[in-house]
Amino acid sequence: GAVVSQHPSWVICKSGTSVKIECRSLDFQATTMFWYRQFPKQSLMLMATSNEGSKATYEQGVEKDKFLINHASLTLSTLTVTSAHPEDSSFYICSADRLAPYNEQFFGPGTRLTVL
Amino acid sequence: KQEVTQIPAALSVPEGENLVLNCSFTDSAIYNLQWFRQDPGKGLTSLLLIQSSQREQTSGRLNASLDKSSGRSTLYIAASQPGDSATYLCAVRNNYGQNFVFGPGTRLSVLP
What dihedral do alpha carbons A11, A14, A16, A22 form, nearest 10°? Predict the structure, then answer.
């Protein structure tokens, strides 16, 4: 089946630093990728939709200047958490849309971010 | 706006029991519905994907049904095992190219 990877799988950083998370579709091209966030004991919530070659669409309440999304190629989207704070500590999961042979969305393994 | 709920929130059963997890969604005009499993601290494992035109999907001991008109899906687990212990998430997608909306999950414990 189609594979989506994320890197890093976990990261610990100091408050105020920026962290970049990569999401790659390994064996298919994805014009659309999605970024979700999961806080402990909660479900996944959509943060933003990443579109190749255009600006991301952010959900209400998600700061676009804090969570920078770049989808520069058909196989890579990046999420940069700028000036991270402890409240940004969460599990970040991406997914990618495969269009052929039929439309299906595949999820990455997630990145656990801990901000000290 | 699509909303997804899951009942029960938590379930504890002895090994060997058959069980049913429930998922409800408010907007019946869905594209597809997917059931996932999530182990503590881990990512998502896709279990079953049901397209809007389908009524059920089966994989091993798992069977998922879909009733779009009533906005419901069930995940049936036969002969449960301790290794089935995890959180089960139901997610609905309204349209081609759109994101999934996730339910809050059912936390399952299967006791040996």
Answer: -10
Evaluate whether A45 touches A60 at the Cβ level (below 8 Å). no
pLDDT at B59: 96
Residue B19 identity (one-letter amino acid): L
Total CB pairs under 8 A between chain A and B: 44
Does A43 touch chain B if contact means CB atoms closer than 8 Å?
yes
* Residues B33 and B90: beta-carbon distance below 8 Å: yes
Q: Which residues pair with B48 in a beta bridge?
A: B35
- Given a contact cutoff of 8 angstroms between Cβ atoms, the answer to whether A58 and A66 are in contact is no
pLDDT category of residue B96 using cuts at 50, 70 and 90: confident
B40–chain A Cβ distance below 8 A for any pair: no
Nearest to B99 among A43, A46, A104 (CB): A46
Kindly compute the dihedral angle of the four CA atoms of residues A98, A77, B87, B31, in this order, to the nearest 10 degrees: -30
**Which amino acid is it at B70?**
S
Reported confidence tier of residue A1, pLDDT bands at 50, 70, 90: low
Tell me phi and psi for residue B28, to 5 degrees: -80, -10
